[in-house]
């Protein structure tokens, strides 16, 4: 959910204003002018790629003695993902012009009172990232999986769920669906994943609880699939509500997906179980193109945003991360990576369920004189950080929140690997 407001002009109950037809514009004698977008901030994308991909590359190609075929497959996936990065860079300006022509734009609320606050910012550009991601993943499938691969069905189910979520997210951007309906969208999109899931439905009881439970493994059956469904619903909506400032939606998903990549290669390198290695290998192939295409979007969405990502991207990103966590069999670790989103959700519960008044945009107050944001009483991390650490610029606030996201991922690694052998 971007920090934006829809263009006004029509009163309640009036029919929506339709864009002027192209032939009418030509007849008026006024030449049609395509808006000129600022160039993307490639330095931000390059810095993020260096910070987050360097540890993964070192672990995969230097630290762990991975199989040569696996390294070759990772390089193949990485090359296709890099191609997806450049395709997104090329297509976003093209798509942005089409969105502006169809009046799919908004104004940045956090710059209200400044000239930049009156610029029409094209919305729902997460659609480009989603489409390029799907095409990249499908092409990689043709070069990697064989017809009798045991992972092919789940791979296609994952792509179907992601595709479904992109469609529903774009519908939300166009129709502005109410919140009670938004909660049901991931439920629909997760159906292909649930129907095709062929993995285990049991959980390992933590060792400290084993004497009290009397079991080491607990079979959940249909309740495990219910957990998968709830995880998909949480991931998609948690990214959507932890938003509101330039770069935050894409930035948090870049941090989480990089942590997922590192976790996957560490599990492959430290495990001797073939099924575990294959599950994490499968996860790498899904999350690597997601990370690179998101980095390209970050170059356009970083402060000051050239485009808004829309609910299309937040839903797509949440579902993509949910499927890699579920099919990679590390849903508990994924929830730890989502710790800021969990905290944001818990703090938002009173407003989300209308125990207290909830405004449409739970955004901080912007002072055009100083250019700083001030926290409101709304219960989300954006405002809580401003109340705790004082007013600051939008860019500085985003950086603080992303550092917190990264620190939570580091804490997850510490907790996950320090407790190995004692907890499970």
Automatic annotation (TrEMBL):
Main location: endoplasmic reticulum
Localization per Swiss-Prot or TrEMBL: Endoplasmic reticulum membrane
EC number of the protein: 2.7.8.15
Organism in which the protein naturally occurs: Setaria italica (Foxtail millet)
UniProt-recorded Gene Ontology molecular function terms: glycosyltransferase activity; metal ion binding; UDP-N-acetylglucosamine-dolichyl-phosphate N-acetylglucosaminephosphotransferase activity
Cofactor requirements of the protein: Mg(2+)
Protein name stated in the entry: UDP-N-acetylglucosamine--dolichyl-phosphate N-acetylglucosaminephosphotransferase
Keyword field: Endoplasmic reticulum, Glycosyltransferase, Magnesium, Membrane, Metal-binding, Transferase, Transmembrane, Transmembrane helix
Record-level GO cellular component terms: endoplasmic reticulum membrane; membrane
Membrane topology, from the record: Multi-pass membrane protein
Catalytic activity: a di-trans,poly-cis-dolichyl phosphate + UDP-N-acetyl-alpha-D-glucosamine = an N-acetyl-alpha-D-glucosaminyl-diphospho-di-trans,poly-cis-dolichol + UMP
Keyword Ligase carried by entry: no
Cited Pfam families: Glycos_transf_4
Region (Disordered): 1-32
Residue stretches spanning the membrane: 42-66, 78-100, 121-143, 149-171, 183-205, 211-234, 282-300, 312-330, 397-419
Coiled coil: none
A Gene Ontology biological process term: dolichol-linked oligosaccharide biosynthetic process
Keyword Signal: no
Function: UDP-N-acetylglucosamine--dolichyl-phosphate N-acetylglucosaminephosphotransferase that operates in the biosynthetic pathway of dolichol-linked oligosaccharides, the glycan precursors employed in protein asparagine (N)-glycosylation. The assembly of dolichol-linked oligosaccharides begins on the cytosolic side of the endoplasmic reticulum membrane and finishes in its lumen. The sequential addition of sugars to dolichol pyrophosphate produces dolichol-linked oligosaccharides containing fourteen sugars, including two GlcNAcs, nine mannoses and three glucoses.
Record pathway: Protein modification; protein glycosylation
Family: Belongs to the glycosyltransferase 4 family.
Domain of life of the source: Eukaryota
């Amino acid at each position: 959910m971007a920090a934006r407001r829809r263009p006004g002009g029509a009163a309640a109950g009036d029919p929506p204003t339709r864009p002027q037809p192209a032939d009418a514009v030509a007849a008026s004698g006024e030449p049609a002018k395509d808006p000129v977008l600022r160039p993307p901030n490639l330095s931000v994308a390059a810095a993020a790629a260096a910070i987050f991909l360097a540890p993964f590359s070192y672990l995969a190609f230097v630290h762990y003695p991975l199989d040569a075929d696996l390294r070759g497959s990772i390089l193949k996936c990485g090359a296709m993902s890099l191609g997806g990065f450049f395709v997104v860079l090329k297509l976003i300006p093209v798509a942005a012009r089409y969105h502006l022509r169809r009046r799919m734009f908004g104004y940045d609320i956090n710059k209200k009172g400044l000239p930049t606050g009156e610029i029409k910012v094209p919305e729902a550009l997460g659609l480009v990232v989603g489409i390029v991601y799907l095409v990249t993943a499908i092409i990689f499938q043709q070069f990697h999986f064989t017809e009798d691969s045991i992972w092919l069905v789940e791979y296609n189910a994952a792509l179907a769920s992601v595709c479904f979520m992109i469609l529903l997210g774009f519908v939300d951007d166009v129709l502005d669906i109410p919140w009670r309906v938004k909660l049901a969208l991931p439920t629909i999109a997760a159906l292909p994943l649930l129907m095709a899931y062929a993995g285990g439905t049991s959980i390992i009881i933590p060792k400290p609880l084993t004497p009290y439970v009397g079991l080491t493994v607990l079979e959940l059956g249909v309740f495990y699939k219910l957990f998968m469904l709830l995880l998909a619903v949480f991931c998609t909506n948690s990214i959507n509500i932890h938003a509101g400032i330039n770069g935050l939606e894409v930035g948090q998903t870049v941090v989480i997906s990089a942590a997922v990549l590192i976790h996957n290669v560490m599990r492959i390198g430290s495990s001797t179980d073939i099924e575990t290695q294959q599950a994490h290998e499968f996860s790498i192939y899904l999350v690597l193109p997601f990370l690179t295409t998101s980095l390209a979007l970050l170059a356009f969405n970083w402060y000051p945003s050239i485009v808004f990502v829309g609910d299309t991207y937040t839903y797509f990103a949440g579902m993509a991360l949910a499927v890699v966590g579920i099919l990679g069999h590390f849903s508990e670790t994924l929830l730890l990576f989502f710790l800021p989103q969990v905290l944001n959700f818990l703090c938002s519960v009173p407003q989300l369920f209308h125990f207290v008044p909830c405004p449409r945009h739970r955004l901080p107050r912007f002072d055009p004189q100083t250019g700083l944001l001030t926290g409101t009483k709304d219960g989300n991390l954006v405002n809580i950080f401003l109340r705790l650490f004082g007013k600051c610029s939008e860019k500085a606030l985003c950086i603080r929140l992303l550092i917190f996201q990264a620190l939570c991922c580091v804490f997850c690694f510490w907790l996950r690997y320090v407790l190995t052998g004692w907890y499970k």
